[in-house]
Design a protein that fits this description.
Blueprint (H helix, E strand, L loop, with lengths): L2 E7 L2 E7 L4 H8 L4 H8 L4 H22 L6 E5 L5 E5 L2 E2 L3 E7 L2 E7 L4 E6 L7 H8 L2 H8 L3 H22 L14 H4 L4 E4 L9 E5 L6 E7 L2
Antiparallel strand pairs: 1-2, 2-7, 3-4, 4-5, 6-7, 8-11, 9-10, 10-11
Helix pairs in contact: 1-3
Length: about 230
């Protein structure tokens, strides 16, 4: 299908999924989905989010089947109380961690054998009104850095910080209980370092590895729990 290796980080593997329209590939992807996923797919009103869900879920299934050596019809998904999915094979929890993100025509999937992981990808929208988001989504030190930036530098910094924060929230798996204003990305990463370590204020003993993995086409980040 429409994926290719993108990056390896420690024991984690990240792949890129091409989400641009293609009727033949979408028909193939539909064949990977189970009945519940087909029902979810059909509830999307607009074709773009329907296509993104179809491709990302089909590729996720293919990757997990390859990783675990199982058949697609043996694979199913359940969800934590905060909505984070996890895999079952033959009705039993599978020993694999994964996370999925998509933005525009780009999807990223991260997989690892153990530990919590998260990924976020966003297309940089230069015409987006960023100031409202800056006031409501970022901690004081981050807001100061963003408000001091101008033009393209502000757009780049906004998406770099936002994908890092989203990757952390998704990795932690606590859903809406985590307020992105309550924690700050390490200062060195705000100033351009590509990776660093992080701990949430309330759980300092749990350490996370953060990486900015964006490129000229999209902003992206991953978070890995350090075991």
């Amino acid at each position: 299908m429409r994926w290719r290796p993108f990056l390896e980080s420690g024991s984690a593997r990240i792949v890129h999924v091409d989400l641009s329209p293609n009727a033949r590939d979408e028909a193939e992807a539909i064949g990977w989905l189970d009945d519940s996923e087909l029902g979810r797919r059909n509830r999307f009103v607009h074709p773009a989010p329907r296509r993104r869900f179809t491709f990302c879920r089909a590729v996720l299934r293919e990757l997990i089947c390859r990783e675990l050596g199982c058949r697609n019809d043996e694979l199913s998904f359940a969800f934590s109380k905060f909505g984070k999915p996890f895999a079952h094979v033959g009705g039993s929890p599978a020993k694999i961690s994964f996370n999925v993100s998509h933005g525009g025509r780009h999807g990223l999937i991260i997989l690892a054998q153990r530990g919590r992981i998260g990924v976020d990808v966003e297309e940089r929208l230069v015409d987006r009104d960023l100031d409202g988001y800056i006031r409501t989504l970022f901690a004081p030190g981050e807001r100061s850095e963003l408000e001091a930036s101008q033009g393209r530098d502000k757009v780049e910094l906004f998406y770099r910080l936002w994908t890092l924060k989203e990757a952390l929230v998704k990795a932690a798996g606590d859903g809406l209980t985590l307020d992105t204003c309550d924690f700050e990305i390490p200062l060195a990463m705000i100033h351009g370092e590509s990776d660093g370590e992080f701990s949430f204020p309330g759980t300092p003993s749990t350490r996370w590895r953060l990486e900015n993995i964006g490129n000229e086409r999209f902003a992206a980040a991953i978070a890995r729990e350090l075991m």
